[in-house]
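Re: the pair you flagged

First of the two:
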Amino acid sequence: MINRRGFIRRMASLCATAAAARAPSALADPVSSKSLSFVHTHTGEKLTAVYWKDGDYQQEVLQQVNHLLRDFRTNEVHVIDPALLDLLFELRTRVDSERAFHVISAYRSPQTNEMLRRSSNGVAEHSMHMQGKAIDVRLESFATVRLAEVARSLRRGGVGYYAASDFVHVDTGRVRYW
């Protein structure tokens, strides 16, 4: 049995829920553009890219990103998953930094991936790097262990923390941690 006060509270809650469902989400993306900065640790190349603007990915800019994040060993360029860029943007936003991501590895050709598998531990046979859906980074002037913690909190894909090599792997695959 519900009393009058409980009934009023319940109706107010239902009305507020209905109003929130009709209103634009407060969590909706309020930004009109998304940009990222990169420094490739192996090539020395730098790029600051506004890759998303006014609701659209900027195709010419994405091509520049694809080039920078290419397999630097073979020079092979591959399409980088825009969702990976969005994940990096959210990660950088959460840690409140405008600094550049230092890129250790992004796209890897099958040949490079196999070579790395033979010469080191922890390289997956079917690595998401070969699909343009993974990147290994550190963020300038930000503790890598903390970056890994924040990346895990996003729950938007795989996150690996490599303390000895001082980088974080993020990808747009299923949620998993190592």
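Second of the two:
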Amino acid sequence: MRRPRLHIERTGRGEYAMASKDYYRVLDVGREASLDDIKKSYRKLALQYHPDRNPGDHAAEAKFKEVTEAYEVLCDAERRRAYDQFGEAGLRGAGGFHQTDDLSDALASFMRDFGGLGGFEDLFGGGRRSRGGGGGEPGANMQIKLQLELGEIAVGTTKKLRVRRRIACQACSGSGSRVGSTPATCRQCGGRGQVQRVVQSFLGRMMTVTDCPACGGAGRITQDPCPDCRGEGTQDGDETVSVKVPPGVAAGNYIPMRGLGHAGRRGGPAGDLFVLIEETAHPIFQRLGDDIVTDVFVTAADAALGANLEVPTLDGKAKLKIPSGTQSHRILRLRGKGLGRLHGGGRGDALVRVVVHTPDDLSRRERELLEELRTLQTDKLPPPRKGNYGLEE
């Protein structure tokens, strides 16, 4: 069975609609575009709408941010997979991407991959700095994988994870300096942690701001290092973190845990921890968006006469009525027995495919009865016809 097209979202009426933003259309590329194609198209559009080439043009600025937002999603394999599977909703639910509303963020993304310059955050003023003058060096982000069963995905869960990461040194409280000593202000940057420089690029002369090479962006120089951490301000440690997983997540979604990555050097802010979701294969259920599918075997008599059965669901057994005259491989639906929807709105359905079982170890009595039944039913078979190979409601 095929999953729904990954760029399609399901509506409350069971219909399918396109996501509100089509990042492929924004970048003017096809859905099968390679990473190189995406980069080429983005570079062309970003140069066309770059604020330096369109001073005071708010429409061009908005377009520049839009194409950058699309590029940030499609150039990242995990984000692209989440977007292809759930559209914008998958990105919001995973917490993996936010709309590019800040011009400095869009400019930083462009210059990171195409400008050949570092520290582009403050080019137009007011940009966010990656390292805060005098605040130490930020810690690195981390990623950890979390395997979930369908039963946990159906209703959501909370998991305790053991994480090994860099934590603040206990001896110096993360400062990197021996207790009682005071770090000196960096002479090269004056304690700001950053230095300015003018560079010549294809867009003209630009003022850029970069981390100070002398202090690494900390703004301070450690004169008497802490002996326990050797002036780093961090050490290896193990911690247990609690992760709340919402219902309806899917493989490739990830949950951001702000400030739970590696501790920053010399008192810098900690990075983030990203929990990447993986699905464990279920022995009897297959996922189909928010729905689950399973096969239930019945006898020819049950299919012909109808029957009331108990069938498995993620919540336990459920009653299912098999109508008389049910054909093999017909799909019956149990409403609300599927997976929770990522952004609320109830749960999907359990789809039960009825399969008529043909025994291959007949007793003598069974064979006699079937021979008699065959004689009675030979003239009742319908003529050949075009089959329906999709899912029936």
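The chain has a mean pLDDT of 79.

-B.
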